[in-house]
Amino acid sequence: MQKSESAYNVKxxxxxxxxxxxxxxxxxxxxxxxxxxxSDNDMITRGxxxxxxxxxxxxxxxxxKVAFLRYHDWQHQIGKFTTLEEDDNGLFAxxxxxxxxxxxxxxxxxxxxxxxxxxxGFQYITDKMKFIEDDNAPSGGYFVINEVKLWEGxxxxxxxxxxxxxxxxxxxxxxxxxxxxxxxNQIGLVSKALxxxxxxxxxxxxxxxxxxxLNARLVxxxxxxxxxxxxxxxxxxxxxxxxxxxSKLINN
Length: 252
Prior knowledge:
The chain is an alpha+beta fold. The protein has 6 helices and 11 strands. It has helices at residues 50-56, 101-111, 166-169, 173-196, 201-222, 243-251; strands spanning 9-13, 19-21, 26-33, 42-44, 67-70, 73-86, 90-97, 117-124, 129-133, 141-145, 148-156. The longest helix has 24 residues, at 173-196. The radius of gyration is 20 Å and the shape is globular. Mean pLDDT is 81; it is low at 160-171 and 224-240.
């Protein structure tokens, strides 16, 4: 089993935003978590970002510092990191949103609860990883990652793997209900942000695309017509959201 050292890789992390100060345009987040096996069968250890932070971190003299991006797009810089450091949990960051159009849109997305996840863009270093055989792991083992080349941290509207396995997980009625409610809550947030109409056309388009994405995932999980989706409890037999209102928002 090998991982390419030359490839540009991304990893998503689904953790709540640690703190937010809208007045200062700052968000405190984690970009990576240590000592957990992720969906790529990697376990990143503390110290993996040390060299990158020394060479391109906040306090470095480099003119190519670790960038604060959106969607891993180098033409979509939304601000800068004022703090980047490893702690016991993972790679902690404080990002300050810029006053450009892209920075303003990102600030509104943080404020509206649209941005929930973050991701890193990096490269593996071949001699800084080791494969550990483990019969309990999905692929018969996992990689311990002791060092990577970190290039950027990105805010993502939704992670690429956010709902990939949710249909498989939601086998019981209870887990299925939880999955449906999670998506319904997200649809509510996105619908509210669309109704407010704040931001650029680009931002509103992105919100619309997320709404379509969430709709598709909802149908995947429920396997029934979305207009008929209801909670299973007798005392709460109401639709999870109003699809006619969602349609009006998209049409407008």
